[in-house]
Every structure is written in structure tokens, then in C-alpha cells.
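Changelog note: in this version the structure field was regenerated for every chain. One regenerated record is shown below for reference.
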Amino acid sequence: MRQSYAENRRIERRQSSLSFFAKFFIGVIAIVILTLCFSSFFSQRGEFERLSNERLKLERQRDHLLQRYETLKSLDEIAETDEYIER
């Protein structure tokens, strides 16, 4: 027997509500994933800035220590000489 219009509408409504919830669920998951991606991106960007600043600080410290090493090395070369005693 052929289904009536009302029965057809009820079946369509049930299928469309399942389709709606599936699309809604996929949309929510996509938003959560995108949020996590952006959060990770900005977190890594901040971490990169911090590491860059730390690197600059360490390079300055290295340069200072290298200069001090050169000074001490020159003093060591003239150790126990008259020039060293005069300094």
C-alpha cells in the first residue's frame, strides 16, 4: 500500500533531524580542532619570541666572556715578565 503524505513527511523529518545533528556534531568538532590549532600556533609563536630573546642574551654573554678570555689569555702570555709586573 502506498504511504500517505503525512507518513512521508514524518520519515523525511526523522532523516533530516539525524542529518542536522550529524552536520552539527561535525561542525562542533571542526571548531574545536581549529581552536586547538590556533591556540598551538600562538603558543609556539610566544615560545619562539622567548627563545629568541634568550638566545640574544646568551650571545651577549658569550661575547663578553670571549672578550674576558682574550684579556686573560694575553695576561697569561706575559706572565712572569717585567711587563706583567708593571701592570
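Spot check on this record: Residues 45 and 65 are 30 Å apart (CA to CA). The chain is about 90% helix and 0% strand.
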